[in-house]
Amino acid sequence: MEKEKPIQKRTIINRQKIITAAKKLFNTKGYYQTNTKEIAKLAGVSTGSFYNYFPDKLEVFREIINDHLLENSASLLDLINALNERPEQARESMIRYIHDGMDTAYKNLVMFQDYDSLVIAYPELGTTVNAVTNEIMAALHNFCTQSPHVKRRTANPLVMSQMTFFMVQGISIFISKLPDDIDKNEYEEQLAEIAYWYLFGD
């Protein structure tokens, strides 16, 4: 196996340092209030070095969003597999998935809010979102049509898969609208209970 060259290793490390720094700033100051000089300083690289790895801060933002989407997609596909293989643990699996999803949404709330306006200004940002969403919807559609454990709430499996997606995947949509005094754990459990009933309940 060919050894990784020092320059390649340094590139990987510096890119990750820039991404980590940008994510922190995007979630504290917001995308619009953050500049490349601040990102470079927090990452411990020069501003000139920043441009060796990324053409602008939008490209860093795009990579952060893409990484998040891929991780989230993998988590949801794991959930679907768990529901198929261990239906008796469906409640626990859903609560765990929703808890992790809400935790991520809370930690990245400012960045996700900026994404909503950025995708209008830069529609190409939505390309990966659409691709990942289509993959997830296809997996949910197969689950709703093929799993022997799922209750048929409607004759149209597309409706079921869309409703399931909305309940277990669309949780970040509600985060910014939740009252400050809400019991987060109770909210997660109730959301999971609704999703569980919709898929498996009598």
From TrEMBL:
Instruction: Give the keywords, sorted.
Output: DNA-binding
InterPro entries for this protein: Homeodomain-like_sf, HTH-type_Tx_Regulator, HTH_TetR
Any Pfam family: TetR_N
- For this entry, the protein name equals Transcriptional regulator TetR family
Q: Which GO terms describe its molecular function?
A: DNA binding
Where's the HTH tetR-type domain? 12-72
List membrane-spanning regions. none
Against Gene3D superfamilies, the record matches this protein to: Tetracycline Repressor, domain 2
Q: Which residues bind DNA?
A: 35-54
Q: Which organism is it from?
A: Acetobacterium woodii (strain ATCC 29683 / DSM 1030 / JCM 2381 / KCTC 1655 / WB1)
